[in-house]
Amino acid sequence: MRALHGSLRAPGRAAPRPHAAGAAVRCAAARKGKQPQPDAEAPAAARGGKGKRSGKGGAASEQASTAAVAVAAPEATTNAEATREPQQPEAPPAQPQTTANGEDAAEEDEAGEGESSRVRCGCPWIVHRSVEPVARALEGDACREAAGPGPGWDPWSDPHVLSELAAQEIPVLQEISAAQHIILNDGFLPEADARELRAVFDDRFADPRATHPERFLWDYWHVEDQYTLVRTQAQAYFPEKLYDMLEDALLQYGESQLGCRAISPIWMSYYVDGCVQVELHCDNPHGPFAFVLSLTQGTLGGGGRGRLLDEGLPSYADWENREFSGGETVILQPHVLNYWRNFNPRQGLELQQLVTRVPAPFNRLTVFDPRFPHGVRQVHGTRDPRKARLVLHGWFTEPSPFFDGPLDPAEAAEALNGGLEPLYMALEDLSGLLTGTLVTRVSISGLDGTVTGLVFLADTLVEVPNHDRAAAEALLEGRVLPRLRALVQHEVRECMSAIVFPASATGEDSTLTLPIILE
Ligand SMILES: O=C(O)CCC(=O)C(=O)O
Ligand SMILES: [Fe+2]
């Protein structure tokens, strides 16, 4: 049997350096009064560099500040703050046993993260956490593709490859979690809260002849061949209490689901006829996850939605009855960025096989990997702001370790730092071969500090083409390079499970959310 482990070192690559994450992990300012105001002169800078940190996780994480894990390729910057500097002005609950092509059983999240509601559609990179059949959730995805080489083909799932490896007694390391580049959360806010936000917008536009000050908070933002939309800062727009509710909900989600303890200032944008984020852009520097929370309403109004909600369905009817066409977020599909690997000269591709179109029904929070080229399909139709596409958007930032529970964060940080050493060493040889973020949640026994469980909350790890070089090298040495994503997941699970944290004073259990970044 040939060994799959062993040297994975890519030639000439330096050892990875821990992120300067300590700098990024600071105690949250008191909720009120310390939020940096959006910089009217330089909104792009505000989007990338400033934002709001969670107050709750702050105290705990501050003391664990040295424990964030990041492995950087030598040519990539290792400065956490620097990577958030914007480089351009502006820039995915239970049910459906249905795949995106309307066929059978969706596969439940393999990570076993305790969220039985998470459903995976036929597109392996999309996770849907709503109650709506995924078939209606995404338009124009790649799920309809034929089997065999072509878009989305995964050699590690190809029965021919697997049987060949099995014949040679080469074990294949199984992935513990699948990559998720789009996460959909329908019904994100409590319905009444989402309605209240929406009502503010509706009220202010109710009388087109009224000239109260709030009407003048909007910026018509036009960058030739790139962005045309009307935007404002949510914090400036909404009454304070309402804004705080919104911000808290996003911070809480970011912290608990993505291991990110801050968000950029929240933009609110509406798209009437002609508005678009045309062409494609990438928001790499802004943060590891982008979000779009829709306040878009169709023509059914409260009556129609009420009826649908009574039936336990979210608001697709709203979206389908919108008074414009377009308006979906378009995100390049993963296979397009690895085009030649799966190239099939006998198969043509159309738009729906190249981009994923994500509709924005009311109260859907779409979380996506902003490193993927993306945009917003041009809106055609209404010129009325109240019938337009209306979204709140920004980025989850500051990935950092976060302890929740009675564990003393300072003591826990010491154990964590020591325990992460073997992980740094294990990941060292993978430097430059993978890029992305793996967010883990670790359950810690309050009685004896042992790790009692580990799940992956989010996973955007991508093998970069340098992998080819390593694969060639391995081949020359008579080895088979393991599935790198799986290798990282297994290393993380092994190293994290071996850590023994201090027991908690009360004996109650704690959890640690730990984002691991590979650059
Ligand atoms: O509104 C959307 O769907 C995407 C927004 C976006 O990509 C951005 O603001 O950078
Ligand atoms: Fe973007």
What does this structure look like?
- InterPro entries: Oxoglu/Fe-dep_dioxygenase_dom.
- It comes from Tetrabaena socialis.
- Residues 261-398 form the Fe2OG dioxygenase domain.
- The protein has 519 residues and is an alpha+beta fold.
- It has 2 domains: 1-35 and 64-84 and 401-519, no CATH class; 182-399, q2cbj1_9rhob like domain (Jelly Rolls), CATH 2.60.120.620.
- It has helices spanning 21-24, 43-49, 55-63, 134-137, 159-167, 191-206, 234-237, 240-258, 301-310, 316-320, 351-354, 409-428, 466-476, 484-498; strands at 52-53, 69-71, 107-108, 119-120, 126-128, 182-185, 219-223, 227-233, 260-263, 267-271, 276-281, 289-294, 324-325, 329-332, 355-358, 365-368, 374-376, 380-381, 389-399, 402-404, 434-444, 451-459, 462-463, 510-518.
- The strands form 3 sheets. It has a 16-stranded mixed β-sheet that branches.
- Helix 12 runs antiparallel to helix 14 (484-498).
- Residues 1-50, 56-69, 71-122, 130-147 and 300-315 have low confidence and may be disordered.
- 2-oxoglutaric acid (AKG) binds at residues 90-91, 277, 283, 292, 329, 374, 376, 391, 393.
Characteristic key phrases:
alpha+beta; 2 domains; 14 helices; 22% strand; flat; binds 2-oxoglutaric acid; binds fe (ii) ion
Give the SSE map.
Blueprint: H1 21-24, H2 43-49, E1 52-53, H3 55-63, E2 69-71, E3 107-108, E4 119-120, E5 126-128, H4 134-137, H5 159-167, E6 182-185, H6 191-206, E7 219-223, E8 227-233, H7 234-237, H8 240-258, E9 260-263, E10 267-271, E11 276-281, E12 289-294, H9 301-310, H10 316-320, E13 324-325, E14 329-332, H11 351-354, E15 355-358, E16 365-368, E17 374-376, E18 380-381, E19 389-399, E20 402-404, H12 409-428, E21 434-444, E22 451-459, E23 462-463, H13 466-476, H14 484-498, E24 510-518
Parallel strand pairs: 2-24, 5-6
Antiparallel strand pairs: 1-9, 3-4, 4-5, 6-16, 7-8, 8-10, 8-11, 9-19, 10-19, 11-17, 12-16, 12-19, 13-18, 14-15, 14-17, 20-24, 21-22, 21-23, 21-24
Helix pairs in contact: 12-14
This protein binds 2-oxoglutaric acid and fe (ii) ion.
